[in-house]
Each structure stands twice: as C-alpha cells, then as structure tokens.
Amino acid sequence: MESPQIKHVLISVSDKLGLAGFARGLAAAGVEIYSTGGTRRHLESEGVEVRDVADYTGFPEMMDGRLKTLHPAVHGGILCRHDNPEDLKSLAEHGIVTFELVVVNLYPFEATIAREGVTPEEAIEKIDIGGPTMVRAAAKNHAFTTIATDTQQYFEILEQIQADGRTTFELRRRLAGEAFSHTARYDRAIADYFAGQTAEGPFPGTLSMTLKRKAVLRYGENPHQQAALYVQSGIEGATAVAAQQLHGKALSYNNLLDLDGALGIVRGFSGPAASVIKHNNPCGAAVADTLAEALRKGLAGDPLSAFGSVLGLNREVDAETAEVLAEPGLFIEAIVAPNFDDQALKILTTRPKWKANVRLLKVGDLDQAGEQWAYRHLDGGLLMQQADVLPDPEDEWKTVTEAKPDQTQMDDLRFAWEMVRHVKSNAIVLCKQRMLLGTGAGQMSRVDSVEISINKAGDRSPGSVLGSDAFFPFPDSIDRAAAAGVKAVIQPGGSKKDEDVIAACNRHGLAMIFTGRRHFKH
C-alpha cells in the first residue's frame, strides 16, 4: 500500500535544538502535534499549538515525569499497521489516533555521568524508559511510522512532508536503522556505567564500542583495499579523526594514520614543537622558541624523507611558519595543527606548488587530553591497553655512569625520551639541540636500529644523545654509538647485561640514564 499520510506527530525530546522551527513546519503542513511535559511547554512558549499527551490519554503524568508515555493510547498509535483492518478497528473502538511520525531523543545520560561529582542517584534518574520504548516501537513499525532521533534528520523529513504529505519507505527504513543504533549506544553507555560501579576495574567482562561512520575513503593502505573512517562515540579532545579540514583533497587511510601519529608527538611538548611523519614513523621533529624555528629544524632532520610527509604542529600556524613551508623544493601531504591564522591560510593555499592538494586540519586546543585507551585488532579479537601517553616520572631516573649529563645534554635526553615512545620497536633516536637527527625504527636487532640512526644523522652525530625504547642486551650498541660521537644515552635499563653496558659507557666516557620504564611500540 501507499505510505500513510502524516496526520499526527508525537514529540518528546531532551535536545530541543531546532525543534520549534521543525514543529512550525509540521503544523503548517497540517500535522497535529502531541507532546509531553517540558517539550510541550517549550513549543507553547514558541507559539506552536500543541495537544498535551496527558489530556489525550486521560492519564496524568506521575512520579516526577517517570510515567507519561507508557500508555496503550500512545503505543497503539505508534505500532498500528495501516494495512491491517483489525489494527484500525481496534484503534477506532478505543479512540486512539495514529502517530505516523515520532520525534524522540533521550535523556542526556552520557553528559550527566561525564560531570564531575555526579551521584549514582543523579545518573539513574537520567536513564530514559519511555523514550527508548517509543523509539523502538516506531522503528519496528517503520513500514508505516517515521522515527526521528537526531536534530540533523529534521530537514529531510520536513522536506518530504511538505512535498507529498508523507515520507518515503527508503527514508523510514534508514531512520529506523539509525534509531536502533541510537538506543544501542544509549544502552551501552548505561551498561558501561554500571560495570564501572562494580569491582571489574577498567576491563569489563564484555567490551562493546559504538562507532559512527564519518567517511568512506578512496581506498585503504593499498588501492585494492576498501576502507572507511569510523569515529568512536564519546571521544573528546583534539584528535585527527574529529579534526576540521580547512583545505585540500580528501584524506586517505594512510594520511589519517600519519596525522594521528604526528599529533601524538607534538602533544607531548609544552614548547613550540613540530613533527615530520613518514610511513607512521617520525623522520624529523624539534622543539624551539618559535613554531617556525621548530618546523625548520624538524624538516632539516631528514630532508630526503621529509618530501611527501605529514606534519604535526602544537601551536596555531602563523605567517612566519607558513613561509617555511612555502620554500621551493618542499612537498607536504597534510598538516595538522590547533589552528591556522588568516595569513598562514592564504600563504599555504596560494603559494606552494602543492597548494591545491595539501590537507590542512584544525584540531583546536591540544591541552585537551587525547584517547586514554589503545586498541589493536587481531584476527578474531581485540587487544585493549592503557595508551602510552602519561609523562614519565623524572624523579625515578638514575644516572648510572661515572660521567653525568650536563644541562644541555639533559634537555636533549628529555627530548629523545619523549621521541622514542613514538618510534616502532626496536627504536633508537639520535638527537641534538632538541632536534631529531636520526631514527632507527622497526628493526629486529637493536644494533641495526642504532646503525640506521647513525647513518641518518651522518656527520651531525658527534655531540648527540641517544634514546632507546628498551634496554640494550649487549654493549655492542654502546661501542658503535661512542664511535659515532654520541655523548649521552637514555634507556630503561633492566638487562642481565646492564653492568657490561654501564662499563662500556664508562670506558667511552658516556653519560647514561636509566628511566626504569620502557616504551615498546609494536
């Protein structure tokens, strides 16, 4: 049969954004509006004519609003099958109107439990009962009933009603799917809250995640792989996946991986910092007094690898910084930063040869914390751990050699230790003047990583410091580093051969710090 004409709408919402305009449009299209409690009062204050659900059912709201829509006169109108004569006969016998449109969004449970100091009683009062019941009923009956659970859906629904007095089945089916996703997320948040009130700790017995598709990507890591971007609900803070793209081509799968890594590096520094990422490893990074200087030093770390790289910056990009990027011979794929000022945007979108293609992403204030949990997909499973984002307690560091690092070396060692956590294991970095000179990443042998980092640093190695994400199993890496001119080392310690490694440092006059904490990144 033809989709039913929309004659009556039931509205009961917590988020009233855009509601008055939507309701006025419905009323102008001849739709009679029924509503409850605060929603009814809001619409009336906006001059919208509304029929009170309590007057319609003949049953008053009770228990501070806990009981108002759980009534056959409400759910009969939502669940009625318009092609079933018995359903229509029952409604007529009991004076029940049909609700061809239901507009519901739920109590703000997630926002409530996110507030500092919220009590269990306050949280429980924000567990919606009538709302999810109406949503599920309308979604189940989507052959005849339209369900709106998001303010972003209002325009399309109203547009169809104004054009034809009804909605299409295709729209109702899509909205039904979105409605069930809405209630599933809501119930998941409640279940997670209760799990957090028990002794289960941070790892619940059942792990569920709600992610919303943000984009279908051109392809994955390689052109033959399909890919999409999903964003986890409830994530706050400055993240690459939630960034606002100000300019450039659509982001690729690999762009997103690199942007996430670039942002993770610069977030860890308080001073102006820049990171240069290639294939999800830093090929350059630096901290300086100005962002432009940090960027120039970061790009100079490995100029060959910096071509076609992704950049992360922890300050608003200004004209001076943009001028560095506009210099000839440089090609950048994407840049992520808290913001770009008007002059910088003009330079980056008009001057370099790659001006039309570079992706510019604004993420906002980096003081907001990033994701505190890390997930890795396995074939048939998922690993979950605390993200390696917490600063290391420097008061636990120990200088274990006869030579002690001077202040300049200590500054470089701190920089190296912050950098090494972002490099794939086995990880070695060579740094000087708070600048990354050479990176040895992802090697099966630690001495091979040392060799690669030295080769990358070249004749800049003398006077540098070396950071290692894990202990040295043998002193051979120390011998090679000393031969290259390295003057200080920072590493976790904890090897059976620690005494041999310390002895090698003493023999070469190197200072070495044990941090007591490793930073594997597999």
Structural summary, described in words:
This protein folds into 3 domains: 8-196, Methylglyoxal synthase-like domain (Rossmann fold, 3-Layer(aba) Sandwich), CATH 3.40.50; 211-362, Cytidine Deaminase, domain 2 (3-Layer(aba) Sandwich); 395-514, Cytidine Deaminase, domain 2 (3-Layer(aba) Sandwich), CATH 3.40.140. The protein is 37% helix and 19% strand. The chain is built from 19 helices and 21 strands. It has helices at 19-28, 37-45, 53-57, 72-79, 85-94, 109-114, 120-125, 130-140, 154-164, 169-196, 253-267, 291-300, 303-306, 319-325, 342-350, 407-420, 446-457, 476-484, 498-508; strands at residues 8-13, 32-35, 51-52, 101-105, 146-148, 211-217, 227-232, 244-247, 273-278, 281-287, 309-313, 332-337, 359-362, 373-378, 381-386, 398-399, 428-431, 436-440, 465-468, 488-491, 511-514. The strands form 5 sheets. The chain has a 6-stranded mixed β-sheet, sandwiched between helices. The protein has a 6-stranded mixed β-sheet with strand order 16-21-20-19-17-18, with helices on both faces. The mean pLDDT is 90.
Features:
single chain; 522 residues; alpha/beta; Rossmann fold; Cytidine Deaminase, domain 2; 3 domains; 6-stranded mixed sheet; 19 helices; 21 strands; elongated
